[in-house]
Structures are given as C-alpha cells and as structure tokens.
Specification:
With 212 residues, the chain is mainly alpha-helical. It has a single domain, classed as Orthogonal Bundle (hpI Integrase, Chain A), CATH 1.10.443. It contains 9 helices and 4 strands, in the order ααββββααααααα. A hairpin with a 5-residue loop joins β2 and β3. The strands form 2 sheets. The protein has a two-stranded antiparallel ribbon. Strands 2-3 form a two-stranded antiparallel sheet.
C-alpha cells in the first residue's frame, strides 16, 4: 500500500497531537486498533494493550494502565477525520498494515523537526509530561488525572472516589474544561510540507520547558 506524502504528514501529525492531548505512552498509542480501542464517536481511547520493545502485543504493565482516556472534542473530531472510513487495523500502521515501530515514528517524523529546533534530547515522554502538566494546571480532580495518565495510586480517597472514573459524562465534562494546552492547526493538502507535529512539539518545549 503506497502512502502519499500528504498521508504521511497527516499520520505523524495525528500521532503527535494524540500524544500531547491524551498522555498515552508510545507503546500504548501504537497498539491502538480501530474497531477495538476507540469509541464510535472517537471521544474515548480504550487502553487495553501495549507494544513492547520487541514489537509484541502485551497487556498494560499495571492495573492502572488498563484505562479509558477521554479526548477533548476538538481532538476527537480530528481523530474521526483521520480514521475516515477505516473499520479495522492499527490506528497508526505501516504501509503493509503492521504496527509501527517507535523508531520509525521518531526517525521519519519527530527527529527532523527537533533537529531544526536544535532540541536533540527530546523524546516521546516529553509529550506525556506536557499532558500531565496541563492537567495539573487545571482544576480537575487528582483521581481523574491518575486515571487518564494510568498512574498507580494507593491514596485512600482515590479508592473511595473510583466510581467517578466510571462516570463517562463526568469525565467528558472535565476533559473539555481542561482543554488541550495547545492549538490544533488545520492542514490542507497544499500545505503537506508543514506538519502540526511542529506546533505540538513547540508547545511542549515552550510551555513545559522539558528537554528530555
């Protein structure tokens, strides 16, 4: 399956936007499958598996990693557009339909952008840290932060408030209140040489000051 330059830009742009807006780990993001791990309206990601360093599908390392991550409406709209009429397969897949390697995503998408920015030490975890910082700056309850980020939390109050994580309407209200922490630009095919990954990466490094 031939991947056009525009499709390549959109694939990396969508992946970085989801990184910044969801807080998923690289192995969790690449293991997402359409029809299995994404709600019909694309407002929720169901983290039920992850890609390990050898390319194998594994369950999340901890019970907390097995979670539902709500997306801001703007991000959900972008995701619906990116998926289009696809009904199965990995959300971000290679030309032959297999799961992408993290190294490929970094080499072909992120590294050239970081090189232009002279940010050689930034890696995927910077996006996760940015999302954590965005959540912490908001007024969202800690139990939702821990739930969305997949943190292990033994605090007793969090145990008692666990029922809140099962209230989808409550979660959706808060994910919209929190916002993204960055603007999601629109990319036209005529602008395929420009990627919103640049904007997302700029947001991460500028707003959070994270270098690695």
């Amino acid at each position: 399956m031939y991947v056009t330059p525009f499709a390549e830009v959109m694939r990396f742009s969508a992946s970085y936007a989801l990184f910044v807006g969801s807080g998923l780990r690289i192995g969790e993001l690449l293991a997402l499958e359409i029809g299995k791990h994404i709600s019909t309206d694309c407002s929720v990601l169901y983290v039920r598996q992850q890609r390990d360093r050898w390319g194998r599908i594994q369950p999340p390392k901890t019970e907390a990693g097995n979670r539902d991550v709500d997306l801001h409406p703007i991000l959900a709209e972008m995701l619906r557009s990116f998926i289009g009429d696809r009904e199965s397969g990995f959300l971000f897949e290679s030309a032959n339909g297999t799961m992408l390697w993290p190294g490929t995503v970094y080499r072909d998408g992120l590294r050239p952008i970081l090189k232009k920015m002279a940010r050689n030490r930034v890696r995927f975890h910077a996006f996760r840290r940015f999302r954590e910082a965005t959540l912490q700056r908001s007024e969202v309850r800690q139990i939702l932060i821990d739930f969305w980020m997949g943190h292990e939390n033994t605090d007793m109050s969090s145990r008692y408030g666990k029922q809140l994580t099962e209230d989808v309407e409550f979660r959706q209200q808060w994910v919209e209140k929190v916002g993204l922490g960055f603007e999601l630009p629109q990319i036209s095919e005529s602008e395929s040489s420009a990627s919103c990954a640049t904007c997302a990466t700029n947001s991460v490094t500028h707003d959070s000051g994270i270098a690695a």
